[in-house]
Each structure stands twice: as C-alpha cells, then as structure tokens.
Design a protein that fits this description.
The chain is an all-alpha fold. The chain has helices at residues 3-24, 26-37, 43-69, 94-98, 105-126, 133-155, 160-164, 172-190, 211-230, 239-271, 276-291, 299-322, 331-349, 355-383, 390-395, 397-402, and strands spanning 73-74, 79-80. It has a two-stranded antiparallel ribbon with strand order 1-2. 53% of the residues are buried.
Length: 417
C-alpha cells in the first residue's frame, strides 16, 4: 500500500469513526426526547432503558449480530454466521478479505453498531410508561442480536434484497421501519396505558412532563443525523465522495426543515393550534423520509420529501389514536409510516431504483421484523410478563422498576434531619 493509498485509508477510517460518534449522539437525543414526552413519574425508567439498550446493542452486535449481517457466506436469504470479528480476527471473514475496503473494518463495526441501537431506541418510546424494564431488555437482546441483523444482511450484507435492486441508502427501512415494526408488535400485545381511551371512544391526552427536554432531544437527533446519513457514504476521500457528503448534509438539513414547517402547519389546520409536539415529530419525520436517499434529490426536492413526511406523521398519529394503538411518543408514525414513504420516494430521484423493488423490500422488512417480534414478545409475555401491575403504572414505574424518581420533591422543613 503506497503513501497515497494509506492516506486515503486513514481519512476514510477517521471520517467513519467521527460520523459514527455523531450518530451515537442520537442515543442521547432519543433519551431526552422520550424523557420529555412521558409523564414525570416514568422518566427515570425511560432513561434507564435508553442507556441499557445502547449497551445491549453493542455487546450483542459484537457477539453475533455483525457476523450475521456481514457473513463469510450465505444463500442471499439465510447467512452463514462469521465469528471472526467477535474473536478479534477480522481477517477470518472471507468476504471481507476479498473486498478492496477503504477503511478499517472495526470502524465499520462501530458505525453499524450505532444504527442497530437507533432501531432499538424506537421501540423504547412506543412501549413507554407500562412495560417491564427487564422484559424490554430481553427483547433488546433478540432484536439487536438476531432480528435486525438478518434483514440487514438481505440488503447491506449483499443478500437477496441487494440482488433485487432494493435501495435504502442509510436505513429508512432497515433501521427505522425495522424499529417501528418491532414496536408495533409490542404495542399490540401490551395494550394502551390506563385511562388513555374511554369506553365511549374518547381519547385522553397525557401531556409530556418536559417539553424543553423533548425539544433539546429533537435538536440532538437533528444534529446526529448528519453523521447517520453523511457517514453512510462510507468514504470522504476523493472528489466524488467529498461532493456527495456535502450534498447529503444539505439535503438532510432541508428535509428536516420541510418536515418541521409542514408538520406545524398541518397541526395548525387540524387542531387550530401550533402544536409543538407535532412540530418536533415533523422534524424527525423529515429526517426519516430523506434517509432512504439523501444523495440524489435536489435541495428543493429534499425539502419536499421531508415536508410530505411532516404532513404524513400528523395524520398517522391521529389515525393510530383512533385505532386505540397507544404510542406515547409517536414512534410508530414517525419511523414506520414515514419510513415507508421514504422508501417509496427513492425512485422519484434515483433512476437506479424501481417502485416494485422498493415495495418488495419494505414488505419483506415489515413482514420479517413484525412477525418475529410478535413471536418473541408473546413468549416473553407468557413467561415473565411484559406489563407492570396496575398499581405500579398508577404510581409511576420509576419507583417500581428503578426505586427512584427523576424529579424528586423536596418537602422536608429547614430543621429536618
């Protein structure tokens, strides 16, 4: 390897690590967003879940997930698990050895690992305020170690979706629709929060405890998304890669802007008020929508794709409530409904993608993740149970699950010991 090649290898490796760190910061964004949108009595538990799921994701992806997603072989549908990376021997992966990779394999592992944590974070918000902590973490082991990597292999690992021509640049389907599908299965078995829906069909709002925190979380996610989408170019070295990264950053930002404004306008037209939570979800919807193809759209088209996502998410949140599917943070709408839109929008600007391949791909992801998740959620429900008791839910699961409160009230008098 000559000096020029080594320099390019070092630059691309460094870029992948830095964008991976940016994407890792999205874990903080999810934690703050969810902590802001749940009620005060459930805040410590949701923060515990977000911290623990990130740790579980890293360990499971190292132990088995990465070897499934990037195997030494496979038939396109079922991968051959490669154990070399777990043992520190990346060179044991025959496929990797045959590729002319432009960055360190461990940088790729780190970058891909933060994606899998993102998918699990989506589940966290949808099942908030009534799910048992340890049941959730057991499911996290299954999703991050097995369910996610299989569908990841189908596309990014060179499996049958890749051969079909399915296109998903940074994961509107493989990450966001995946997380939403697993969340939907959990919500169906879990049921709504106590008092959320009346017998007369009424819907009762449960306002979040800290909207400034939710807004901060959204800004953190917006910021981290530059690493999420920009890093998915996987290289910075060379004129073509450099220009592509710049375009991805611009389009990612404009899609979020379009989603924010059209989400806010849609909420104003529907509810007569400028609903902050719909604006926040609109921003995230714009980001999810552009994630499937952030490179080929023009800046104006990127804003439009994100804007349509912002409109869709408002209607989706309303529709799910009417269906009595209780999602405290709107995760299924943001990442599922808009994830589907993002995948279907790819052929509008990318001539190498077709609507048929996109439909097949999103159906495969939805079908695989939802079905397997439903099975494992059911098994956990039948053994350990997935829902806290009515009393714990009423008092708040911070005390029941974590033994502490995020917002303790100091009521002792000055002279109290």
């Amino acid at each position: 390897m000559d000096a020029t090649t080594q320099l390019g290898y070092a630059l691309d490796t460094f870029y992948l690590l830095v964008t991976g760190a940016l994407a890792m910061w999205m874990a903080a964004g999810f934690a703050m967003l969810e902590a802001g949108l749940v009620r005060a009595k459930n805040t410590a538990e949701i923060l515990t879940k977000n911290l623990a799921l990130f740790a579980v994701s890293g360990l499971m992806y190292m132990l088995v997930g990465y070897g499934i997603m990037y195997p030494a072989g496979g038939n396109g549908l079922i991968p051959d698990i490669a154990w070399g990376f777990m043992l520190g021997g990346e060179q044991a992966l025959a496929k990797v050895a045959a590729e002319a990779i432009t960055h360190a394999r461990r940088a790729d592992f780190f970058f891909q690992m933060v994606f899998i944590a993102t998918a699990m974070s989506i589940v966290s918000g949808a099942v908030a305020e009534r799910m048992k902590l340890w049941s959730f973490l057991i499911f996290a082991v299954v999703l991050t170690g097995f369910i996610y990597p299989v569908q990841g292999y189908w596309k990014w690992g060179g499996g049958w979706l890749q051969a079909l021509g399915f296109s998903d640049f940074a994961g509107s389907g493989l990450v966001h629709l995946c997380g939403a599908s697993a969340a939907l299965a959990g919500v169906l078995l879990l049921g709504p929060r106590q008092g959320k829906y009346g017998k007369d069909g009424s819907i009762h709002a449960f306002p979040g405890a800290n909207l400034p925190l939710a807004t901060l979380g959204t800004f953190i996610l917006w910021f981290g998304w530059f690493g999420f989408n920009g890093g998915s170019q996987l290289a910075l070295n060379g004129l073509e890669n450099t220009n592509a990264v710049a375009a991805i950053f611009v389009n990612t930002n404009l899609a979020a802007a379009g989603g924010t404004l059209l989400g806010l306008i849609t909420a104003r037209l529907l509810f007569g008020k400028a609903d902050l939570t719909m604006a926040l979800n609109g921003a995230l919807a714009g980001l999810v929508a552009i994630t499937a193809e952030p490179l080929t759209p023009s800046p104006l088209m990127a804003a439009l794709i994100g804007g349509i996502g912002g409109v869709l998410v408002v209607f989706a949140i309303v529709a799910l409530d009417k269906l009595r599917l209780d999602d405290p943070v709107g995760a299924i709408s943001v990442h599922g409904v808009v994830g589907i839109w993002g995948l279907l929008a790819v052929p509008i600007t990318n001539d190498n993608a077709g609507f048929a391949a996109q439909l097949i791909g999103l159906s495969a992801i939805l079908g695989w993740v939802f079905t397997t998740s439903l099975v494992f959620w059911w098994l956990i429900k039948r053994t350990l149970g997935i829902r806290v008791s009515e009393e714990e839910e009423y008092l708040g699961i911070d005390i029941g699950e974590c033994g502490l409160e995020a917002y303790p009230e100091f009521v002792r008098s000055r002279g109290a010991q």
